[in-house]
Specification:
With about 475 residues, the protein is of the alpha/beta class. The protein is built from 15 helices and 15 strands. The chain has one domain: TIM Barrel. The strands form four sheets. An eight-stranded parallel beta barrel has the order 2-3-4-5-6-8-11-12, surrounded by five helices. The structure holds 5-hydroxymethyl-3,4-dihydroxypiperidine.
């Protein structure tokens, strides 16, 4: 049966600056923590860097035409902080801002709504050298940066997102160290999480102060759809711990104004959380116009036992953990199909998350700001890229969104990750998430069969039978 999505549903695709732009040394851009990390031996597969990426900085117009050909209604991209405010403080780079002004103008000329994310992981290296996210000052620098971007783009962008997936910035960047800046310190990771929350609150305030009242302010999280292996109390406790560290550490302060008590208890042997100052909760809690949810795969956990020792959750890091205070949690491989990231394919996790937030935060609109899958796509002899697994993945997950809407969730849009194959962080260019194939030697773009399929969904607002 063909099913319809609500009128006005926003259909889009997403990217992030460091993953696609390239032009790392042009027009005054200074290095970000990812430029430094890529140059640290052994950190990124194959020694890949974002120096050229998909050369979007120079192919902006071609890429916007591609989006228009697909019929996209919206495009979610991030602004590179070190491109528009070199060094992370002080005056703006007009050349950097001009790039985003031109991008937004191109999008609007094609009736594509720009959705700006201010921070998708590319902290200016100077700010990391001054302490990075574990230091409070970084949150204030972020607010200045938010102000500067909103002044430049506020007349033409209505949809704003402060941070993308702060869990990754804090816990992969400072806990397991598999992301930039590659530090492995549990307390630094918790401090980073708090200062990212503070940055969100201060940034949201700066946006509201500078933007016209029609502007909408949001944040994008990657909440964990975490399941317990059994209903036994120790396994349920493992689930609770991971839920606190992955999801409630952000949703509770951002949407309710305080950290969960169980998170403080779980991490009490590591820190007394004195870095949370009086007044911070009131700053972090900021009325949002929507909550962005990124979803790829669920997690399956239990209490660690002799037969199920605590082991890697798939985020790497060896002995260093992205889960401070959850050392006794064992992560399991859920059964079933997997993507090229070795992530399990389970759309019920997306439905569960959308329903959970509907129940926990009634009245808060939701937006699926990322969803997609990596597969080992290759052009055939005719240069055509067939990716039936991605079509199946997208179909199943859009069906989960459709079911959530039918069950009462107020989901306003869906953004496929990603428009283009791109730099997949520590995996370099080895993982292809794009609906559009990129030949990195020539930079030629070839829409995959999933792009044509998605285009039909976008144009009709209907999910065809599968
Ligand atoms: O590529 C990333 C993106 O930058 C953030 N969300 C997950 C994607 C796939 O790993």
């Amino acid at each position: 049966m063909t099913v319809n999505f609500p009128p006005g549903f926003l259909w889009g695709a997403a990217t992030a600056a460091y993953q696609i732009e390239g032009a790392a040394h042009e027009d005054g851009r200074t290095p970000s923590i990812w430029d430094t990390f890529c140059r640290t031996p052994g950190k990124v597969l194959g020694g890949d860097t974002g120096d050229t990426a998909t050369d979007h900085y120079h192919r902006r117009q071609e890429d916007v035409r591609l989006m228009a050909d697909l019929g996209l209604g919206a495009y979610r991209f991030s602004v590179s902080w070190p491109r528009v405010q070199p060094g992370g403080r002080g005056p703006a780079s007009q050349a950097g801002l001009d790039f985003y002004r031109a991008l937004v103008d191109d999008l609007l000329a094609h009736d594509i709504r720009p959705v700006v994310t201010l921070y998708h992981w590319d902290l200016p290296q100077e700010l990391e050298s001054a302490g990075g996210w574990p230091e409070r000052g970084t949150a204030h620098r972020f607010a200045d940066y938010a102000h500067l971007v909103s002044e430049a783009l506020g007349d033409r962008v209505e949809l704003w997102t402060t941070l993308n997936e702060p869990w990754c910035s804090a816990f992969l960047g400072y806990g397991s160290g598999v992301h930039a800046p590659g530090r492995t310190n549990a307390v630094a990771a918790l401090r980073a999480a708090h200062h990212l929350n503070l940055a969100h609150g201060l940034g949201a305030q700066a946006l509201r102060a500078a933007l016209p009242s029609r502007a909408q302010v949001s944040v994008t999280l990657n909440p964990s759809a975490v399941r317990a292996l059994t209903d036994a109390p120790p396994d349920l406790d493992a689930q609770r711990r991971v839920d606190a560290l992955s999801t409630r550490i952000f949703t509770e302060p951002m949407l309710r104004g305080g950290y969960p008590a169980d998170l403080f208890a779980d991490t009490a042997s590591l820190t007394d959380w004195a870095f949370v100052h009086d007044g911070d909760p009131g700053v972090i809690r900021h009325p949002l116009d929507s909550l962005g949810v990124n979803y790829y795969a669920p997690s399956l956990v239990s209490a660690a036992t002799d037969s199920h020792p605590s082991h890697d959750d798939g985020h790497g890091g060896g002995d260093a953990s992205p889960w401070p205070g959850a050392g006794q949690v064992a992560f399991h491989r859920p059964p079933g199909k997997r993507t090229a990231m070795d992530w399990s394919v389970d759309p019920t996790g997306l439905h569960d998350l959308l329903m959970r937030f509907t129940q926990e935060f009634p009245g808060l609109p939701l937006m699926v700001t990322e969803n997609g899958a990596a597969y080992d796509d290759k052009p055939d002899g005719q240069g055509v890229v067939h990716d039936p697994e991605r079509i199946a993945y997208l179909h199943a997950h859009l069906d989960a969104v459709r079911r959530a809407i039918a069950d009462g969730a107020d989901v306003r849009g869906y953004f496929l990750w990603s428009l283009l194959d791109n730099f997949e962080w520590a995996y370099g260019y080895s993982k292809r998430f794009g609906a559009v194939y990129v030949d990195y030697a020539t930079q030629v773009r070839t829409p995959k069969s999933s792009a044509r399929w998605y285009s039909q969904v976008v144009r009709t607002g209907q999910l065809p039978p599968y």
